[in-house]
Amino acid sequence: MVTVELDIFSGRPNPRWALTEREARQLTERIRADPSLLLPLDADTGGLGYRGFIVRAEDTGMADDWKRLGLPPVVRLGGAFQPGAAESSRFLLHSAEGARLDLRDPGPVLAEAESVILQSLDVQGVMTLCSPAALTSDTDFSFWNGAANLRYNNCYNFASNLRTNTFAQPGRASGAIYASIDCAAVGGGAVRDGWLTACRADANYNVCLVIWPNYDYHWYRYCANSHWCHKPGQTAARNYDNSNQLILNPETADRGGYTVFCGYYRGYNVTVS
């Protein structure tokens, strides 16, 4: 078992949770790909507020796996002084969404950590794509816009390229739907469904998440000809924004009230419902 501690409190004990087997495996893969993500336990990673994560390999099997990789059983990752670890920090933060935390309302705590991570990542205006990209048409939306499917599939269905006719919701397929409308909660639900913040080696649907604060979320997907496409709720899938402009960068497109840009996700054959 691998446990994660969000190092954020000063007086109270920090929130702590266990990773699922899949999450632990994904974290190990990230560390293997970039060992510089890890810091000593006594590293200075910030002051008051978010200071990154303390990660522990609790059981003998996982500790042995880490030892073979040359890793200590307790490490730090992330923090205000380690912007290069932002994507992996978001991965760990999202893993908390499906955990039982000893907090009356974990939403504001996770949102505060998410805010610092996003500031360090500086995602706005810096579009990031993974290759090889799994592209679909940027003009032919007949798969989505037929009468039998139009009203029953939403932006999350479209981003996943999976027509379920259930108005899919992040996290529902994995049994833990998002609990609030913010980047950490909705993004965490997507991660539980199988979306990644790291690139895949075989194929990638490049998608991104934006938030209308406290009210709604929306997803875009990268399509052919360098255009981003989306399906706003029950309406038709399209390749243009609120100003009727082709979407070349979802971070700078006219998104109306969806003012918070959360970041990019990658996946292929994810499960949504």
Key structural traits:
273 residues; alpha+beta; 2 domains; five-stranded antiparallel beta sheet; four-stranded antiparallel beta sheet; 25% helix; globular
Describe the overall structure.
It is built from 7 helices and 9 strands. It is α+β, with helices and mostly antiparallel strands. Strands 2-1-4-5-3 form a 5-stranded antiparallel beta sheet. It has a 4-stranded antiparallel beta sheet with strand order 8-7-6-9. Strand 7 and strand 8 form a beta hairpin. The longest helix is centred in the middle third of the chain and has 15 residues. It starts with a strand and ends in a 6-residue tail after the last strand. The mean pLDDT is 89.
Structural class: alpha+beta
DSSP strand content: 15-25%
Biggest beta sheet summary = 5 strands, antiparallel
Number of helices: 7
* Portion in helices: 10-25%
Average of pLDDT: 89
Q: How many runs of DSSP E, i.e. beta strands?
A: 9
Low-confidence stretches: none
Shape, principal axes of CA atoms:
globular
User: Which sequence of SSEs, written as H and E, runs from N to C?
Assistant: EEHEEHEHHHHHEEEE
In order across it, which strands form the biggest sheet? 2-1-4-5-3
Distance, first to last CA: 28 Å
Number of domains: 2
Gyration radius, to the nearest Å? Answer: 19 Å
